[in-house]
Design brief:
Elements: H1 3-18, H2 22-29, E1 33-42, E2 48-59, E3 65-72, H3 77-94, E4 100-106, H4 114-128, E5 137-141, H5 147-161, H6 181-199, E6 208-212, H7 216-227, E7 231-237, E8 240-243, H8 250-260, E9 270-272, E10 284-287, E11 306-308, H9 317-326, E12 329-331, H10 333-336, H11 339-353, H12 359-384, H13 388-407
Parallel strand pairs: 3-4, 3-5, 6-7, 6-10, 10-11, 11-12
Antiparallel strand pairs: 1-2, 2-4, 7-8, 8-9
Bound molecules: 1,4-dihydronicotinamide adenine dinucleotide (NAI) and 2-oxoglutaric acid (AKG).
The site of 2-oxoglutaric acid has 13 residues, from strand 3 and helix 11.
Length: 411
């Protein structure tokens, strides 16, 4: 099942639990606007290269649409659509005043030079600048993009609309970015994990973790888990995977990755088959890379007791069913990785106020939002006798449905 079919399915299940009217259901499902643009750039060698860029704006009932921009070879309309829809439910679960959107360009950023990436980002921004904005749609980083990408979007957008720091979040601090945003998704994952484990009388200290992906989210989650006394016993990224039953020294691995750009040849662990990571023996598995990685091929072999979905839609519905039957507890993406967009909201608020918070305040507020959302999800689980994924979906969908009904449809 592709990402969009899977997301639609979860939405419909939640809608049935909430007893939503079928016409309202249809209106919530269909995206507000779908943008597809051609982006041609001269490469460094003078040849031309054409890429396709997307921005899907899913829903704006609760506020400006919000979501990241992904640079990855597998970016295609159905996946961006699914990710945009997930943003709508995620911002509602986090209870921040936004709707949902997502964008992306089908490209491999590892094959492009920095100046090629800059040209591509600027062309994409030229094509969408009149459809995004501080109060309409606010992009942010996602896979394959970062603070530098946001700086280029901000600069290009500002040529058309004047200096507008709040048009993107996840910016460099020097351009109005928020302290704590870079770590926020990983930090939010850790707060979410603590909230879940506490329900089972457990804590991060002493538990074992397997982490797929060592980019922004995976590396921050690993670092913070390590700091809290958790044992990261397996990690992987696109360059390979490694394991160490005594726990990997994450600060050393970060230095190695910084120096070599790769997880390979790190002498603090043994290399392993990257496909093994998801089925490796550990207490908590945290996918922090691509979607659909847990599926019917590997779900039955997963050994973890808890899965924290730091990536977006890492678990397809078939795997969801298999894992539930095995008694694996899954903390769903629209809650588990909401720390990033929550601190993006704090960044946007700071830009609009023209005031900067210190990092301690950012982290404290983030913890408050993550903890409150967890308890709200649990209440929905009790009210609807459902698992955490449906608890989160019913919470998010219900808030968006209420806002939509209140706004009405009169022309
Ligand atoms: N950056 C953010 O603030 C947020 C990101 N997310 C989600 O978290 C996930 C990761 O995003 P980022 O860390 O930002 O991206 P990133 O581009 O910084 O890192 C991605 C990581 O995944 C690894 N990877 C790629 N293909 C892989 C494969 N086949 N096997 C193992 N590892 C692989 C890469 O090597 C890299 O380490 C994505 O699903 C994204 O949508 C969710 C919420 C917010
Ligand atoms: O920070 C943001 O606005 C969005 C982050 C994002 O793309 C996500 O949560 O999947």
């Amino acid at each position: 099942m592709n990402a969009l079919a899977a997301t639609n399915r979860n939405f419909r299940l939640a809608s049935r639990l909430l007893g939503l009217d079928s016409k309202l259901e249809k209106s919530l499902l269909i995206p507000f606007r779908e943008i597809k643009v051609e982006c041609t750039i001269p490469k460094d060698d003078g040849t031309l290269a054409t890429y396709v860029g997307f921005r899907i704006q899913h829903d704006n009932a609760r506020g400006p649409m919000k979501g990241g921009i992904r640079y990855h070879p597998e970016v295609e309309p159905d996946e961006v659509n699914a990710l945009a829809q997930l943003m709508t439910w995620k911002t509602a679960v986090a209870d921040i005043p936004y709707g949902g959107a997502k964008g992306g360009i089908g490209c491999n950023p590892r094959d492009l030079s920095k100046s090629e990436l800059e040209r591509l980002t600027r062309v994409f921004t030229q094509k969408i600048h009149d459809l995004i904005g501080i109060h309409t749609d606010v992009p942010a980083p996602d896979m394959g993009t970062n603070a530098q990408t946001m700086a280029w979007i901000l600069d290009e957008y500002s040529k058309f609309h004047g200096h507008s720091p709040a048009v993107v979040t996840g910016k460099p601090i020097d351009l109005g970015g928020s302290l704590g945003r870079e770590a926020a998704t990983g930090r939010g994952v850790v707060y979410a994990t603590e909230a879940l484990l506490a329900e089972y009388g457990k804590s991060i200290k002493g538990m074992t973790f397997g982490i797929q992906g060592f980019g922004n989210v995976g590396s921050w989650a690993s670092r913070l888990i390590h700091e809290k006394g958790g044992k990261v016993i397996a990690v992987s990224d696109i360059t390979g995977a490694l394991k160490n039953t005594n726990g990997i020294d994450i600060p050393e691995l970060l230095k190695h990755k910084e120096a070599t750009g790769s997880l390979k040849s790190f002498n603090g662990g043994d290399s392993m088959d990257p496909n093994e990571l998801l089925v490796h023996e550990c207490d908590v598995l945290i996918p922090c890379a691509l979607g659909g990685v847990l599926n019917r091929e590997n779900a039955a072999d997963v050994k973890a007791k808890f899965i924290i979905e730091a990536a977006n839609h890492p678990t397809d519905p078939e795997a969801d069913e298999i894992l539930s039957k095995k008694g694996v507890i899954i903390l769903p993406d629209i809650y588990a990785n909401a720390g990033g967009v929550t601190v993006s909201y704090f960044e946007w608020v700071q830009n609009i106020q023209g005031f900067m918070w210190d990092e301690e305040k950012v982290n404290q507020e983030l913890k408050k939002y993550m903890t409150k959302a967890f308890h709200n999800i649990k209440n929905m689980c009790q009210s609807h006798d459902c698992n955490l994924r449906m608890g989160a979906f019913t919470l998010g969908v219900n808030r968006v449905a209420r806002a939509t009904i209140l706004r009405g449809w009169e022309a």
